[in-house]
């Protein structure tokens, strides 16, 4: 079945679930009401259905290649990119002063979703440019902005990011690319970068690389890294691509999937570069682009989940096998279970991504720290859960197809091969989890507590209309609250063993919340049925992820697995548990900016954790069960 843009899903999530009306109610986005948004998404959807989707299979079979040092992209990609650029879809959220439309990030998120479903390998090209535009808007000099942004926004030029080196992957601080200052104020960039997505193409006038490198006197580690803009062709005074810079694509990687997207090994041999931001401020500037990309990559997972679900549903409705009332395999209970799981998880992941986009928009429009903190909190969750969902749904799509799913001609296998990398690049999902329990909890968990207050408050309201579903969501949120309290009471270095299950548990709770909101808006429709399936069948996963007995996240528990069980053999904690440290400092249930709502119960004689680390006994006594 050809791809169909899920316009109704976008409308429903924006209006019923994530509160887009708050965005369009601000002065900054007052002209971006839902009527305008729906018109924009309809046009983007047509382009994705009619132009990009037909390119997807060819991009897999006719991969990008190097011929005599020149990039050759798959047949049709140049025309597809032209449609993206001429339609203004490269950077619709870029500031008007940069030449962009100034539309909310929520709109860009929906457009990226559709482009990713239609042709993920090509969608990755403008996604990189979007992140570079944002980085330059925030950190570049006025001269660089004036020269580069207009060309990037129109899609005449393309942007990339260059971080990774053979010896410096996740450990960016180990990079060795050098930047030598020159008398004219520019820098000579020398070194090799690997895994550079869309490091070159054959359809834009120029390719602009953001490169992390070290100055000669730079301090070790990430604090000694600076960011440089290094174009393939050095622009002349009029902004036209001039002489070729001293850089080249050495080779292309041979990959599991995403064959249409060239992943390059780049060599810089004294290439001319321009400093972006301050010396030693490279990571801060690059994180602007990376955070943009992490939202975008999470949406790539959602996009493939959508495409895989559509393909699996179409196949199940057509494939005749066995005896069912429908006459096709969609009548089989397990096939229906798989399709419902695919649909429910795709909805949850998409809602989380759009909730982050709305938080970004509200942070920009209001300048309020709470919105900015929520956007930051949701970034690793969007990226990790979105991509994990894409992989799981694509895998399930292969299963729905049965033996034909293992045959390349159906396209089901391509979805799985293409999406697999999304859990790896832009920070592996394990790193996202470490970011969530580490950097994102430096506020003592306040952003998380505010979000949990919102979830529990809505669940309380929904109890009158949907008591069973609302109660399940409230209890899941309370479990997440208590796990968060235990987490923030633990030293940062001791949190990482439980980071991945914590992130997934957080995402599961958010999914339940967003499904409940959708069901409350349409209590008699398909949204309510899908919400019931998610909340009854998928949300309970959180109990094995968030349940904690009288222990804590810790390096000392790593050899026991990432889930900590009760030592007294009683069933896992599904009720509220107060935790207090061995010093006797109790923690009550917290809300808002950490207000204690209930005093902690007296401690049971649970005994200390026996794990030892660096000669220090780590204790965490359990409080009393409050049933």
From TrEMBL:
GO terms for molecular function: flavin adenine dinucleotide binding; oxidoreductase activity, acting on the CH-CH group of donors. Residues 38-156 form the Acyl-CoA dehydrogenase/oxidase N-terminal domain. Residues 280-436 form the Acyl-CoA dehydrogenase/oxidase C-terminal domain. It comes from the Bacteria. Its EC number is 1.3.99.41. This is 3-methylmercaptopropionyl-CoA dehydrogenase. Belongs to the acyl-CoA dehydrogenase family. Residues 451-546 form the Acetyl-CoA dehydrogenase-like C-terminal domain. It comes from Ponticoccus litoralis. Its cofactor is FAD. Involved in the assimilation of dimethylsulphoniopropionate (DMSP), an important compound in the fixation of carbon in marine phytoplankton, by mediating the conversion of 3-(methylthio)propanoyl-CoA (MMPA-CoA) to 3-(methylthio)acryloyl-CoA (MTA-CoA). The keyword Oxidoreductase applies. Keywords: FAD, Flavoprotein, Oxidoreductase. Residues 161-269 form the Acyl-CoA oxidase/dehydrogenase middle domain. The keyword Flavoprotein applies. It catalyses: 3-(methylsulfanyl)propanoyl-CoA + oxidized [electron-transfer flavoprotein] + H(+) = 3-(methylsulfanyl)acryloyl-CoA + reduced [electron-transfer flavoprotein].
């Amino acid at each position: 079945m050809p791809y169909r843009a899920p316009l109704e899903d976008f409308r429903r999530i924006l209006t019923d679930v994530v509160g887009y009306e708050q965005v369009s109610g601000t002065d900054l986005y007052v002209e971006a009401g839902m009527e305008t948004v729906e018109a924009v998404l309809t046009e983007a959807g047509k382009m994705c259905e009619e132009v990009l989707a037909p390119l997807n299979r060819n991009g897999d079979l006719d991969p990008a290649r190097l011929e005599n040092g020149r990039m050759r992209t798959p047949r049709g990609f140049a025309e597809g990119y032209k449609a993206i650029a001429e339609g203004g879809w490269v950077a619709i959220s870029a500031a008007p002063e940069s030449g962009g439309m100034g539309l909310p990030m929520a709109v860009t998120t929906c457009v990226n979703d559709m482009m990713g479903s239609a042709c993920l390998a090509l969608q990755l090209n403008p996604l990189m440019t979007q992140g570079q535009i944002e980085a330059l808007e925030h950190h570049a000099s006025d001269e660089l902005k004036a020269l580069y942004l207009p060309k990037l926004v129109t899609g005449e030029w393309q942007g990339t990011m260059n971080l990774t080196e053979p010896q410096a992957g996740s450990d960016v601080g180990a990079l060795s690319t050098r930047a030598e200052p020159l008398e004219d104020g520019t820098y000579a960039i020398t070194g090799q970068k690997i895994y550079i997505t869309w490091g070159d193409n054959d359809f834009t006038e120029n390719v602009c690389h953001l490169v992390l490198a070290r100055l000669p006197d730079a301090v070790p580690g990430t604090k000694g890294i600076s960011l440089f803009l290094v174009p393939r062709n050095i622009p002349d005074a009029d902004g036209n691509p001039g002489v070729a810079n001293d850089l080249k694509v050495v080779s292309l990687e041979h990959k599991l999937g995403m064959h249409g997207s060239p992943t390059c090994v780049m060599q810089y041999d004294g290439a001319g570069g321009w400093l972006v931001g301050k010396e030693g401020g490279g990571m801060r500037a690059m994180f602007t682009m990376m955070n943009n990309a992490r939202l975008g990559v999470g949406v790539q997972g959602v996009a493939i989940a959508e495409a895989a679900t559509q393909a699996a549903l179409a196949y199940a409705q057509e494939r005749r096998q066995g005896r069912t009332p429908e006459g096709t395999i969609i009548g089989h209970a397990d096939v229906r279970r798989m399709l419902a799981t695919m649909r429910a998880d795709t909805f949850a992941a998409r809602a989380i991504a759009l909730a982050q986009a709305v938080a970004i928009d509200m942070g920009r429009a209001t300048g309020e720290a709470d919105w900015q903190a929520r956007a930051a909190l949701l970034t690793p969750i969007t990226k990790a859960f979105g991509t994990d969902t894409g992989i799981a749904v694509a895998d399930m799509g292969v299963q729905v197809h049965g033996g034909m799913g293992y045959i390349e001609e159906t396209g089901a296998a391509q979805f799985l091969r293409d999406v697999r990398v999304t859990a790896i690049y832009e920070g592996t999902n394990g790193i996202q989890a470490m970011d969530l329990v580490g950097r994102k909890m430096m506020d003592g968990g306040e952003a998380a507590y505010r979000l949990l207050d919102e979830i529990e408050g809505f669940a309380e309201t929904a109890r009158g209309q949907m008591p069973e579903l609302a109660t399940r969501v409230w209890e899941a949120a309370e479990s997440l609250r208590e796990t968060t309290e235990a987490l923030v009471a633990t030293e940062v270095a001791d949190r990482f063993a439980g980071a991945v299950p914590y992130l997934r548990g957080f995402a599961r709770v958010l999914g339940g919340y967003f499904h409940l909101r959708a069901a409350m808006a349409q209590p008699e429709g398909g949204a309510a049925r899908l919400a019931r399936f998610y909340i009854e069948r998928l949300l309970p996963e959180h109990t094995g992820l968030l349940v904690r007995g009288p222990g804590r996240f810790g390096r000392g528990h790593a050899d026991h697995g990432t889930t900590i069980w009760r030592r007294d053999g009683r069933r896992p904690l599904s009720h509220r548990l107060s935790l207090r440290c061995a010093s006797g400092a109790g923690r009550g249930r917290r809300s808002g900016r950490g207000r204690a709502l209930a005093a902690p119960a007296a401690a049971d004689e649970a005994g200390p954790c026996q794990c030892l680390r660096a000669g220090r006994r780590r204790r965490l006594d359990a409080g009393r069960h409050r049933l």
